[in-house]
User: Fold this.
Amino acid sequence: MKRVLKFVLIFVAAAGFIYALVIGLNYHGFKTLFANKDGMAEGSQYIQSTYSLKGLTRFIGKHPEWVSITSYNVNEPDSGIFYRSETPRAMGSTTNLLLLMEYERQVAKGLLDPNEKISLSEIDRFALPEISENNHKNLRSSFDDGEAPLDQLVQAMIKNNDLVFADYLWFKLGEENLRVLIDTLHLPETALPLPFSGMYIAINPSLSDTSTLKTESFAGFASQGIAEAARLKNDPTYNKKVKDEFYERRLSLSFIQERDALAYFPKATTNQLAGLMEQLFNNKILSKDISEHIKKKLYWPKDTVPISDSLKDYASIYDNRMGLLAGIDFGTSTADGHTSVQAVSFAQLPVGFWLHMSANHMQEDFQRRLIWDPALYESTQQEITLHYE
Assistant:
């Protein structure tokens, strides 16, 4: 009996230790997942048939409500893929491309010093718990000291899709300068980059009145987002309050509500974004020198992620957040030497299906192969023609 009791006590103690280790240390994560079990199942009916890119092309053709694609050879632009290419979609952190453009313009004009040392603690003012934390940790891990040169931080922002430094850079560049850039590039007002911290505060019902979001104009949402980010930057008491709230309850939204809130974020069409990449490829963004500096920072994938030998001179920027997978890029096929420019957006996706695509890096793989794989390109065109046109 004593042996049995001893065994039971040891078993209970071991179970308690495992629970504390696995569940206790990740309590917030498990709590969030449990509260979002309905969202996790959303779109699960599409998963089994989309493990291959061929299956993904069928999904694309059948669901124009969620997908936009612009992809074309710069020498034969009329023969490309233009699928829901005039539908405005949330840009996510692909707006960092616009920050990069304005940054390089100001450096070229002597308005910014690329070697200026920036305090990482200053940048961290914009960090919100549970919001793209790993991206910012990856950026921070690139620098051992408590400060880093501005230019290296900009490069790390592009490489890591970091929202925190993007907000710091947004204020350093200046709202009016960014508005002038949007006008110069002939983009719609709704493509104006906004501070991510401010937008996430604005959609958080525990911190903001979200009852009027559905009827509010983009200008109104932009004004609120900018004001919230400025307050986060300048008011230490408010900064602590916001961060405590995000730590305890994240966004106070379900995954489905978080996905739906992308409707308020800056938008552009894939045609507009692919057009920017074509101008960039041809060194026509602001000036030849500025275009070359922008492209140099967008070539980051060649040194950090596996790129097929079938692809060279590949430049890109991606985004991956709840319900959204997006990318803008250009690259050259080694098979025939043609260069394609592209913008691809999977937006407002069912949460469970988004998790499937995100976990398997399907959007990035699809987008890259669309440049160099004629079979995938043809399959995509056929599925669009069969189900949509």
Remarks:
- The beta strands are 67-73, 76-83, 89-90, 117-119, 147-149, 267-268, 311-321, 324-333, 339-346.
- The mean pLDDT is 90.
- The chain is about 55% helix and 15% strand.
- Residues 324 and 347 are 5 Å apart (CA to CA).
